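Crash report, auto-generated. Payload:
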Amino acid sequence: MSEILLEVRELKKHFPIKGGFFRRTVGWLKAVDGVSFQLRAGRTLGLVGESGCGKSTLGRAILRLHEPTAGQVILDGVDITALDHQALVAQRRNMQIIFQDPYASLSPRRTILQTLLEPLETHGIGDDASRRALIQELLDIVGLRPHVLHRYPHEFSGGQRQRIGIARALTLNPKFIVADEAVSALDVSVQSQVLNLIARLQREKHISFLFISHDLAVVQHISDDVGVMYLGQLVEMTSAEKLYREPKHPYTQALLSAIPVPDPRKRAKRIILEGDVPSPLNPPQGCHFHPRCPQAKDICRQAMPEQVNLGDAEDPHLIRCHLYT
Amino acid sequence: MSAVEPLISVRNLRIEFNTERGVVRAIDDVSFDILPGETLGVVGESGCGKSVTSLAILGLIPSPPGRIVSGSIRLQGRELVGLPEAEYRKVRGREISMIFQEPMTALNPVFTVGSQMVDVLVRHKQLTRRQARQVAIDMLAKVGIPSPEKRIDEYPHQLSGGMRQRVMIAMALSCGPKLLLADEPTTALDVTTQAQVMEEIVQLQEEFGTAVVLVTHDLGVVAETCQRAVVMYCGKVIEEAEIETLFHHPKHPYTRGLMDSIPRIRDEKKAELPTIPGTVPDLLHLPKGCRFVDRCFQAQERCCQGEPALERQADGSQVACFFPLEAGA
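Recovered output after restart:
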C-alpha cells in the first residue's frame, strides 16, 4: 500500500445566509459538515452524490478555493488549512483543479500558450526555453498538436478545451488534482477519450485524483475508491469494487439501483426513493436521510449516526448509518 | 415494419439553417415512422439533429434562419409541412405535445402552475375553468405530485426540478395527445429523480396509449424504456432497429462505437475504454462520401466515394453503411 497523500479531518464549510433589513446572518447553509477521509498516493477517489450534496464545495474547500469553516486538510504532510496566503500560493503547485466547463475556465482573451505559461511564470519555474519545451511536451501528452498554441479558446471543441484544461492543471507537476465534473459536459465518444487520458496520467505520473461526478458509471470506471455524499456528509466510502458490489448504506443502495442500465436484457430492480433531497438549509433532525430511508428506525429520527469504519486501516469501509452501529 | 398504420411518418426530410458561415444542412434526408403507442428512442451526440427533428414535427423550426427544404411529415396521413400556423396550433398540445430538458424555461414564471394548465385545457378541450381545474388536479395527482390541490396554486419557482418536470408531463398529457415528444426530459435531473420521472412517463403512456419519442444522449434510459430506436449522426439517420438488436448487435460502426464507449457498471475491472477516434465533424465541412468515414475503423475506398443509403437488413433493422457489421463480429 502506498502512503497517505491527503488527509481530511472533520472538514466543514458553512455559508452564511443573509436576510432581513440589515443583511444580518439569519442562518447557515452547511454545505460540507464534518467530512473525514484519507487518500493514498497515486489513487483516484470518486465522489458521487446528487446536486446540492456538497461534493463540489468539498473539492474546493480542500484546495481552499473556499475557505473552510473548520477542520484540517493535510496534503503530503503540510497542513493546508494552517498556511498563510503566501505559503498557500506556493503550495498550489501541488494541488490543481480541472473544471466542468472548460470554456468558462479559460480566458477568452489569451492564447493557449499564454494560458499554459501563466502558472509557470507565477511560480517562477524554468526559463523561457525550458517552459516552452515543457508546454510542447504537455500538449503531446494530452493529444493536441503544437500549432494550437497560438489559438484562442473559442476555436476549440469542448473535448479539446477540456484537454487544454487538463494540460494547464499538469503544468506544475502536481501531486493532487481535483476533477470537478470534468467529463460531464462532453459527448460520450469524447468523454471516453478524456477518461482514458485521465487514467493514463494517473498511472504514468502517479497523480492522485479527487474525481467529482454525478455519473456513477463514469466514477466506477475511473476510481479506486468511491465516497458517497448526502446533504454535506460522507455517508459511505470504500473501494470502488466493494461499493458497487455490496453497497451498505440504504442511500447508496437506492442511488446505485436508480442508474439506468444500457442493456435491454437487464432491467434493473429499482428502489424508488420517495420525495426529493431536502433543503440543506434546513436538514432533517437525526440522520439526514431518514425521511426517505426505507429502513429508518426510531433512533434515526433522533440522533445523527457517527462515522464508523467497518473495514480496517488498510482497507477502510467508512459508513454513517445506524444500521451498522 | 408490420401492417400497423404509422402515427407519424417522416419522409426525406431536409432542413437547412442560414448561419454567418454559410448554409448548414441540419437534417439531411431523414425518414422514419412512429407507431401508435410505442416508445421510440432518438439517440446521437450534440449537433446530430435529434432536437431539430422533434422541433420539425411540432412545426417549431425558427424561420428564419431555418427552413424545411423538402420532405414530408404526416400525422395519420395528414401533411404537416406547410400547414398554416393557425391550423398547427390545433395540432400542438392536443395531438402532439412536448416536454423539454429544462422545465423552468418552458413554464411561465409569473403564472401559477394551475392557471397555465387550465389555459391549455380550456383552449383545446372546451372545458369551463372550473372543470379544467379539476382535470388539472387529477393530472397532477397522476404524475405523483403530493397534495396537488395545494400545489396547483404555486408558482414554478416554488417547485423542485423533479416536480417541475412532473408538472410539464401532466400539462403535456392533459389533453390526451397521440404523441409526446420528450427532448432530454431527465437530463437536468439527478438519477434518483430521473428514475421517478421515467417511471411516471411509462405508466401514463400505458394508461393513455400515447406514443412517446424519447430524444436523449443517455443510452441507459433508451435501453430501459424504448422498444425501438433511431441513431443519428451529423443530420442523418444511420441506423434504426428494435432495441435488443441495437444494443446486442449494432450494425453501424458508429453505433457500435457509441455502445462500447459508455462506461458500464460491471464487476470486472477497467481495461481502457474503447473510443471513437476524432470528433464529430463540422456540418459545414463534412468529409466526402460517408460522413463517418474519418472516424470509422473499417473505412475503405468505397466509403470515400459515395454516401451509403439507409437499407433494410434481414432482421428488419435499417443501416446506412456499405459494410454493416456481422452478428458477433
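Post-recovery validation: Chain A has a mean pLDDT of 89.
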